[in-house]
Design brief:
Blueprint: E1 3-6, H1 12-23, E2 27-32, H2 36-47, E3 53-57, H3 63-76, E4 82-85, H4 100-126, E5 132-136, H5 149-168, E6 174-180, H6 191-198, H7 209-221, E7 230-233
Parallel strand pairs: 1-2, 1-4, 2-3, 4-5, 5-6, 6-7
Helix pairs in contact: 1-7, 3-4, 4-5
Length: 241
């Protein structure tokens, strides 16, 4: 089937995407930063399915670490079929309190790392059979809310990067974004905050990380004529004000 590289694969959405692609027949190159123990457990699970799995650890806020990661993955995987940029930061800070360091780290992980990792891995993608790049975007990149200015800016940039690369890398490489809705609440959200969000979702419920994973597999295997799109998987939340 080919090989898929996923950033932030140790937990939550990233691990669900890795499992789904593994079950679909892909060998896997998996990255994590802090969730290395979870990543190693996931690798054991996927190897039991007969998949080949290689693991990588890097801080995607560090440009040198991003460059080193890209070089190593390119060397060890000269052909890639799927590249999923899942790793991301989500941080709530009042605009007046966002430091330059916090701003740079947010954009470094959420925008710069996808940009430069895709650039570094382009030779491997071009060697793939039907290469696909997937960015995990967010409704916040189009409809911001208070106290997430640097996050919204990073995701808005990622949405434009999706469209720009879809144009520039066509016809050889497809590039799409997936905009998850509420599929895994942040741990610091209390019941009141969760209830308020669910009230704004037409389907009236939280989704699951598997909803995102199935969409990645769909784009990889069933959607050869889709590129440059941001697919909302959000229970209809983005369809209303």
């Amino acid at each position: 089937m080919g090989t898929a590289f996923i950033t932030g694969a140790g937990i939550r959405v990233g691990s669900a995407v890795a499992r789904a692609l593994g079950r679909a027949g892909y060998d896997l190159a998996l990255h994590a930063h802090r969730s290395v123990a979870s990543l190693e457990s996931l690798a054991t699970e996927l190897r039991s399915l007969g998949r080949q799995v290689t693991l990588y650890s890097a801080d995607l806020a560090d440009p040198d670490a991003v460059d080193a990661l890209g070089a190593r993955v390119r060397q060890e995987h000269p052909a890639l079929d799927v590249l999923v940029h899942n790793a991301g930061l989500f941080e709530r800070i009042d605009f007046a309190s966002i430091s330059r360091a916090a701003y740079r780290r947010m954009l470094g992980v959420n925008l710069d790392a996808p940009f430069f990792l895709t650039q570094a891995l382009l030779p491997s993608l071009l060697a793939g059979k039907d290469p696909l790049v997937v960015h995990l975007t967010d409704i916040g990149g189009e409809r911001p809310v208070s106290q997430y200015a640097h996050y919204s800016v990073s995701k808005a940039g990622l949405i434009m990067l999706t469209r720009a690369l879809a144009v520039e890398l066509a016809p050889r490489v497809r590039v799409n974004g997936i905009s998850p809705g509420t599929v895994a609440f942040p741990e610091d959200f209390d019941e009141a905050a969760r209830h308020a969000i669910l009230q704004r979702i037409p389907l009236g419920r939280e989704g699951s990380v598997e909803d995102i994973a199935r969409t990645v597999v769909f784009l990889a295997r069933e959607a050869p004529y889709i590129t440059g799109q941001i697919i909302a998987v959000d229970g209809g939340r983005s369809a209303q004000l």
